[in-house]
Amino acid sequence: MKIISFNPDHDGSIVCLHDGNLVFSLEAEKNAHERHTSLKPDLIFNAMSNLETVPDVLAIGGWHKGSEAGYYGIEPSSIISRESIFMGNKVKRFASSHERSHIMGAYGMSPFEQGKPCYVLVWEGTLGDFYKIDKDLNITHIGKALNQPGLKYSCFYWIAKTSWWGNDFSVAGRLMALASFSDYSSLNEEEMKLIEFILKNDRWKISWKDFEWSSFFNIGVESTAFKNFAGKMSNYLFNIFYEFAKKNLTEQLPLLISGGCGLNCDWNTQWKNCGLFPEVFVPPCANDSGSAIGTAVDAQFYYTGNAKINWDVYAGEEFIENADVKDKFTVYDLNYEQVADFLNQNHVIAWVQGRYEIGPRALGNRSLLAAPFNEKIRDRLNQIKQREDYRPVAPVCLEEDVSEHFEWSGPSPYMLFFQKLKTDQLKAVTHVDNTARVQTISAHQNPELHQLLTEFKRLSGFGVLCNTSLNFSGTGFINQMSDLVSYVQERALDGFVVNDKFYLPKNKF
Fold first, then answer.
1. Cβ-contact 126, 147 below 8 angstroms
2. Under a CB-based contact definition with an 8 Å cutoff, are residues 78 and 312 in contact?
3. Which of 92, 70, 76, 71 is nearest to 137 (CA)?
4. How would CATH label the architecture of 113-282?
5. In angstroms, what CA-CA distances link 395 with 355, 370, 421, 462, 492?
6. Strand ranges (DSSP E) for 88-198?
7. CB 306, CB 114: distance < 8 Å
8. Of the candidates 276, 223, 449, 444, which has an alpha carbon nearest to the alpha carbon of residue 349?
């Protein structure tokens, strides 16, 4: 059975499942489009061009009232199924809620066999709920721990920086970085008053004017007081969910995490270490970029009884080589030793291989890479990315070496957890609290990057590199040569790799 699934709204995406295999997951923000954008015609055309035959099922994820299934609903009765005509052929048309897309996506992508009961946490802008999936895949709503957790979390940022009052999804990453500076002391009376006011009110009915009384009002997000508050507030929110789970999730089942809050590495690490669950799984597309996958899984389960899929994180589009650059760059065949030596000389390169990653984090196919030893490299990477200097840069590490440098064992392939460092030599990837957001690489997972790391280790003694996403500020990954060349020139990168070629500028820009 071939299923084409659409998430038409925020973090728009199109997915193809064929007989339980993820053929592609194309995201609207990729190819340097605005972050979190909805579906656009060009992405639909690109997806359709990859289809050799008419699909059996067209599946549409729920959102607003006009999207058939809507935002909420977990019962099978909320699923809409009927026949339709597509390109002159009869197809099945399926729709289920946005809420179900998060639950079924996490279940379908998880490593557990179908029939294994699991708990599911969906926490995102609006939903803050726990569920149980039983052996027959019946979904039970256990309860709501907090309404609008993601929206309320970002609200705190705009109290301290009132230049704009809205819903900027990049704020969550900034808050996660700022929280690491906290002294995590006890909340004082004013801080508690601030937290309690935000948590008890509808985010959309709160105005910045409600906080003019507070000493945090427009204090600046990089102030010591706000950094301290960011960490304490983050822990307070997590503990609301932890206490709910401790009381209500008592069966020692695995926990699946979905929703945009599933990208918070601090919270994921606390869930992993809390002792309530034997295993914790977070998909790399935990935010709404994975919703179309969840709807496709839901449709597959509805029609076939199979709720599991085979998938790979590199399921996006191939890189588009739409420009001839030989007049500006010297082109070499890719030699891993040459590139590793170039990086070991403190150069910064763009690294492009194969198909782009699903989800928002660069995992070695659309990356900026650099040596991990010097804090000046971290500062340069933040300047290249045009972001705040307090933001950390993540490391990518050989999976077989991770326990040598970090307090971690085994794989962490999707950059979703924090790890403490065991060494003081990786200064470019060490955050202020001595943690890093490590991605591990195995030869099976990504043979090209694994080989580069192996060569870099031979030269430097460390199979570790800085790894951050290759994108213009406020957009998804770069995915065509013309954009990449503009980026390299504008941001003064030292070179770039695209698949099997290494490019060095003939004249430094």
1. yes
2. no
3. 76
4. 2-Layer Sandwich (3.30)
5. 21, 10, 11, 11, 22
6. 89-96, 118-123, 128-133, 139-144
7. yes
8. 449
Average pLDDT, the chain: 95
* Per-residue pLDDT at 507: 79
Domains of the chain by residue range:
1-110+286-311, 113-282, 329-505
Is the distance from CB of 206 to CB of 159 less than 8 angstroms? no
Q: If DSSP codes are grouped into helix, strand and coil, which group holds residue 344? A: helix
pLDDT in tens, 208-232: 889 999 999 999 999 999 999 999 9
Cα 508 from chain centroid (whole Å): 34
Q: Residue 466 forms beta bridges with which residues?
A: 370, 395
Whole-angstrom Cα distance, residue 82 to residue 242? 41
Q: CATH: 3.40.50.720, 3.90.850.10, 3.40.50.10490, 3.90.870.20. Which one for 329-505?
A: 3.90.870.20
What letter does residue 228 receive in the DSSP assignment? H
For residue 144, list its beta bridge partners.
Answer: 129
- SS3 assignment for 405-434: HECCCCCCCCCCCCEEECCCCCHHHCCCCC
Distance CA 320, CA 301 (A): 34
Asked, colleague to colleague, whether 113-282 and 329-505 share their fold, the answer is no
pTM across the whole model = 0.96
Rg value, the chain, Cα: 23
Q: What are phi and psi of 412, to 5 degrees?
A: -145, 70
- Report the CATH fold assignment for 1-110+286-311: Nucleotidyltransferase; domain 5 (3.30.420)
Give the β-pairing of 57-61 and 2-7: parallel
Q: In the prediction, which pLDDT does 78 show?
A: 87
Phi and psi (nearest 5°) for 105?
-65, -45
pLDDT exceeding 90 applies to what percent of the chain?
Answer: 90
Using the CB atoms, write b or e for 423-450: b if 16+ within 10 Å. Answer: eeebebbbbebebbbbbbbeeebbebbb
Distance CA 127, CA 173 (A): 19
Q: Which amino acid is at 343?
A: L
| DSSP assignments along 170-209, one per residue | THHHHHHHHHTT-------HHHHHHHHHHHHS-GGG--GG
Instruction: Return the structure tokens found at 327.
Output: 């007049």
Helices 189-200, 149-160: crossing angle, 10 deg rounding: 130
Q: Are the C-beta atoms of 108 and 244 separated by less than 8 Å? A: no
Residue 425's contacts (CB-CB under 8 Å, 6 or more residues apart) are 373, 462
Spans of the chain, pLDDT less than 70 = 64-67, 162-169, 508-509
Beta bridge partners of residue 352, listed in sequence order: 366, 498
